[in-house]
């Protein structure tokens, strides 16, 4: 099987790059951690890689808003790099937690939604000043760190192929997904782009916003992860790289039988297998 090469992008304040690179390597990829400064010196480095991963952490100290500064730097200085990964059709992009925050600020997870079709003219954004969706502060206004149950919707998302449910840790302050309006939410939902949602341990989602702590942030439609229309670009707030080994499960010592791996590993394997 061809081994895809993964660019794990680091910035000041990133703190999940080592374990994210490890998860990709366990899944069979070759992963390298590359600082954003190195890419800004030489954006052509991107052509060596097939997967771009933005890992979790506190890039630039979460100043202004989580992910904002890194997204701005990428938009201003790394447009070609994003084009290489997002638009070429041959590559994958994964944003985990702070990485999803960056992808949301870049607009790549909600691209193509919230457009108005003007008679005879090109599509226009319904309201250019307000993005179709964003991530904001958790309902209780604090950083929250806990394990959550997640259900996968019918979705084109490459990373979630053959996964129905996962149990993963989440750890964020600004992870509440909100859509601009009901139409945007419905557009994303009907395209299978609200790929991953907080659910009850049974896998059920009985209300549009499940109570805390099942939905740990109060986000619309219990959304935990969103993909683009192609399913190749995916962002999620929980941390799959923190559950790749069975012993990372909080109750692993009380389980009679240990699964071979943690529940997050399949996501990385799906990415690697996509290149087979
Ligand atoms: N674990 C993370 O990536 C944290 C994301 C971000 N710093 C927040 O608190 O919202």
Question: How would you characterize this protein structure?
Answer:
It is globular and about 50 Å long. The model has no long low-confidence stretch (mean pLDDT 95). The longest helix has 10 residues, at 17-26. Strand 1, helix 1 (17-26) and strand 2 form a beta-alpha-beta unit. The termini are close together. Helices cover 22% and strands 23% of the residues. It is an alpha/beta fold and 276 residues long. The strands form three sheets. The protein has a nine-stranded mixed sheet. Strands 5-6 form a two-stranded antiparallel sheet. Helix 3 crosses helix 4 and helix 3 (68-77) crosses helix 5 (98-106). The protein contains seven helices and 13 strands. The protein has one domain (5-112, 131-273): Class I glutamine amidotransferase (GATase) domain (Rossmann fold, 3-Layer(aba) Sandwich), CATH 3.40.50. Glutamine is lined by residues 56-58, 62, 66, 97-98, 143, 171-175.
| Low-confidence parts | none
Number of helices: 7
**For the largest beta sheet, what order do the strands appear in spatially?**
2-1-3-4-13-12-11-8-9
Instruction: Identify the quaternary structure here.
Output: single chain
Relative strand content: 15-25%
Shape: globular
SSE order: EHEHEHHEHEEEEEEHEEEH
Q: What is the CATH architecture annotation? A: 3-Layer(aba) Sandwich
Radius of gyration: 18 Å
Strand element count: 13
Question: Topology of this protein?
Answer:
Blueprint lengths: L4 E6 L6 H10 L3 E6 H6 L9 E4 L13 H10 L1 H9 L4 E5 L1 H9 L8 E3 L5 E3 L7 E4 L7 E9 L12 E8 L3 E4 L2 H9 L5 E3 L24 E5 L5 E4 L28 H9 L3
Parallel strand pairs: 1-2, 1-3, 3-4, 4-13
Antiparallel strand pairs: 5-6, 7-10, 8-9, 8-11, 11-12, 12-13
């Amino acid at each position: 099987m061809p081994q895809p090469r993964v660019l794990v992008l680091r910035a000041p304040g990133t703190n999940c790059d080592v374990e994210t690179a490890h998860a990709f390597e366990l899944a069979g990829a070759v992963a390298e951690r590359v600082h954003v400064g190195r890419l800004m010196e030489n954006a052509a480095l991107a052509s060596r890689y097939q997967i771009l991963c933005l890992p979790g952490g506190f890039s630039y100290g979460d100043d202004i808003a989580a992910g904002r500064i890194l997204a701005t730097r990428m938009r201003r200085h790394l447009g070609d790099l994003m084009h290489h990964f997002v638009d070429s059709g041959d590559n994958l992009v994964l944003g985990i937690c702070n990485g999803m925050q960056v992808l949301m600020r870049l607009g790549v997870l909600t691209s193509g939604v919230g457009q108005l079709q003007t008679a005879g003219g090109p599509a226009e954004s319904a309201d250019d000043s307000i993005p179709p969706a964003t991530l904001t502060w958790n309902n209780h206004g604090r950083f929250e760190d806990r394990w959550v149950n997640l259900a996968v919707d019918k979705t084109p998302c490459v990373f979630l192929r053959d996964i129905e449910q996962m149990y993963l840790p989440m750890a964020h302050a600004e992870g509440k997904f909100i859509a601009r309006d009901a139409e945007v939410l419905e557009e994303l939902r009907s395209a299978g782009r609200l790929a991953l949602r907080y659910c009850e341990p049974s896998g059920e989602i009985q209300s549009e916003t499940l109570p805390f702590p099942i939905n740990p942030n109060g986000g619309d439609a219990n959304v935990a992860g969103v993909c683009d229309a192609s399913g190749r670009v995916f962002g999620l707030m929980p941390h799959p790289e923190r559950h790749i080994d069975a012993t990372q499960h909080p109750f692993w010592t009380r389980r009679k039988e240990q699964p071979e791996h943690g529940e997050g590993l399949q996501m990385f394997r799906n990415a690697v297998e996509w290149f087979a």
